[in-house]
Amino acid sequence: MANHAGRHFLQIPGPTPVPERVHNAMARSMMDHRGPAFCEFGQKLFADVKGIFKTQQPVIIFPSSGTGSWEAALTNTLSPGDHVLVMETGQFAVLWTKMAERMGLKPEVIANDWRSGADANALEARLRADSSQQIKAVCVVQNETSTGARTHIDEIRKAMDAAGHSALLMVDTISSLAAMDYRHDEWGVDITISGSQKGLMLPPGLSFTAVSQKALAASKKATLARAYFSWDDMLAINGSGTFPYTPPIGLLFGLAETITMLNEEGLSNVFARHERLAEATRRAVKAWGLEVWCQDARAYSPVVTAVEMPEGHNSDAFRKIVLENFNMSLGTGLSKLAGKAFRIAHLGYTNELTIMGALAGVEMGLELARVPHNKGGVSAAMAYLAQAASPATAQAA
Ligand SMILES: *Cc1c(COP(=O)(O)O)cnc(C)c1O
């Protein structure tokens, strides 16, 4: 690449940019992970991380990508041949289904059009029909990163309760935690799965599993094989602030710093910022005369916006032009969206001016790639962000 000046614009939905404060927190000498200093740090960290999930229950941290926590959720609570129901909203739900198959489970899928969130009514109807309660777990992705569609988890919980069904509720928040509202306890989620490199603004390498008492009880009876990802081994030692094996010390110090940063800003402000940047992005897309991939306004993602490419234009050819000319990485179209859509992430360590830079790069890229569009997307986003900022300014004055 000819031009390396300025920073690279990493506008993909993970990994996301890591704040300088977090880099500094991670850059430290190694220490004895069973010594008193680490154990004191670990005890505070295990307590503090609960706030991000809005839970009083244990949050288990594995050294793995988010995918590892999918596996942990399944193997710790289920037995060979168990039926699980996956709400298929996009590619990540598909990958979770494939994993369940590989583990010897019997996944069943409720698919949608991949342009909206999971259908709580369809879930309720399916669970009502399962009168023998054969389904042991319901798997839902809160933010389907491949399509830019969210699912309202409180509605999923209500559907399960209305059906009187006892299946465990497992929710993937890998791209939504610390970016949109999430309440593990209040929403009655049994297992919440997450990862470090998206809303949490960390490098990849940590996965998270928040568990309920019901999930812990299920883990006592479940017979799928589990070893590295055993919850028992973790919970037996986490109380003393450390791990059954060598933890990724640097990443954990980074996590402590991102939790501090999130609490300084306030989680509700963090969520509002994501909503604002997402709305600005959608206004730009509409002004360009392009389509937001998600077709249901209630399901618009505050994390990532997938944009449909006009007929006859390839989204990856467009992304290549943007990368080569403006040093910006946009998200590729995954699976069914390959070549048909690109994704603009507005996730993590990002603000008004970084999203404006990203949208300017997209608008210039559309011109260079000769994609038919109207000018004025950047102006529309700017007008919205200025107006959205003014109440705070008025308050301060
Ligand atoms: C990124 C992502 C994953 C995969 O996480 P890895 O950390 O890459 O293993 C799974 N689900 C969702 C919703 C994601 O966004």
How many DSSP H or I helices? Answer: 13
Measured distance between first and last alpha carbons = 46 Å
- Which architecture of the largest domain would the CATH scheme give at its second level? 3-Layer(aba) Sandwich
**CATH domain topology of the largest domain:** Aspartate Aminotransferase, domain 2
| CATH top level class name of the largest domain | Alpha Beta
Give the strand tally. Answer: 14
- Report the bound ligands by name, code or SMILES: pyridoxal-5'-phosphate
Basic shape: globular
Oligomeric description of these chains: single chain
Number of domains: 2
Structural class designation: alpha/beta
- Which blocks of ≥5 consecutive residues have pLDDT under 50? none
Radius of gyration over alpha carbons?
21 Å
Overall residue-averaged pLDDT value: 96
Helix content: 40-55%
Explain what this protein looks like in three dimensions:
By secondary structure, the protein is of the alpha/beta class. The protein has two domains: 138 residues, Aspartate Aminotransferase, domain 1 (Alpha-Beta Complex), CATH 3.90.1150; 244 residues, Aspartate Aminotransferase, domain 2, CATH 3.40.640. It is 44% helix and 16% strand. The chain contains 13 helices and 14 strands. The strands form four sheets. Strands 2-10-9-8-5-3-4 form a seven-stranded mixed β-sheet, with helices on both faces. β6 and β7 form a beta hairpin. The protein is globular, with a radius of gyration of 21 Å. The termini are far apart. The model has no long low-confidence stretch (mean pLDDT 96). The protein binds pyridoxal-5'-phosphate. The site of pyridoxal-5'-phosphate has 12 residues, from α3.
